[in-house]
Task: structure prediction
Amino acid sequence: MIKKQRRKFTNEFKFKVVLIAISDKYSIKEIAEMFDLDIKQITNWKKSFLDKQKHRVYEPSSSLNTNNSMHQENSIS
Result:
């Protein structure tokens, strides 16, 4: 019995697929057919991407806090 070799995708490829998926120009089914992917795989990549972006937007970075406090000090003087 021959095992089907598992495909590996680059982050760039996943990002390209996710951008198309979040653009809403095509359905997930259409994208899956375009790239010969499973619908569930695209859905997982999209969810993962959106979760990571949500954390980047809603969690303040230490560099932003530092810059903001410096700006406040300068505007008080």
Notes: The chain has a mean pLDDT of 82. Residues 27-56 form one domain.
